[in-house]
Request: fold
Amino acid sequence: MNRKPRILIVGASIAGLTLATTLMQGGRVEVSVYERSSASGSERRPRNGGGIGLHDQSNKTLKMLGIHSLVSLKMDIQEDRDRTGRIIRKGTIPFSSAYWGDVQRWLYEAATAEGTILNYGKEVIRVEETEDEVSLIFADGSTVYGDCVVGADGILSIVRSFMFPEKDLVRHSGYCMWRGLAELDQFPEDMATEIKGTIREGTLTMEMSETCHAIFYYLDQGLNWGVYLNKDKAAVPTYQSRQEVLGKITKVHKY
Reply:
C-alpha cells in the first residue's frame, strides 16, 4: 500500500476528537471524522449541565495532547457527607473537573491543527465491509470509503449496532440522573465567595443516602451538580435494543 491508511471516525465529541488527534500526531494515517450534528466544533456547547470529571488516564491523555492545563481544574480532595451534611469520610483522589465545552473546543482545535478533516451534518445510516475496504453510507445519500471505521458515537452507537446486530447491548441499571450547572452569578455574593474558596481547595463533595446520592464539584463557571436516584432496582438485568431507547436516555428541561 503506497498511500496512507484512511481511518473513518464516527462521532466528533471528546472520544472521537481525542482519537483523531492522537492518530494524526503519528503522521502515518489520514483521518476523517463524521458527526451528525450540524453545529461547528467551535460553537458546540452542552445545552444543560456541562461538567465532566477527569481521572488519571484522561488527564495523561490530555497532557500528551498539550491541552491539559488549558481545561482541567484539580479536584483531589473528596468529601463524603450524609444527608444532614456531616462529613463521614474524607481523602485524596486522582480527579480533576473540567467544562465539557472547553475540552471539546480545545480538542476540536487540536484535531484540525493536525490536519484532521471534520465533517458535520453527516448522519450514518449504514456501515458496509468488503475484503478490501469499509464504507459509511449517510442519510444525505453520500458514501465514503476507508480502511478502518471507528465508532465513537456514544452509548447508542450506530456503528456498534452494525458490528453486533444480533445483540441487545443497552442495559438500564435502574438509575436516573438530574444534573445542571449553576453559574456563580446565580448565587448570593457570600455564597459565591464560599464556592470560589472551595474551588481553590479542590474539593469534590458526595452526599449519600440509602437509595440515592448527589455529587458536587466546581468549575470556573460555577457549581456542577448531579443527583442519582435508583428508582427501579429490578431493571438491572434488563437489556433493550438501540431502537427501543433512541431519544429516551437524555431529556433536557429548562427552568
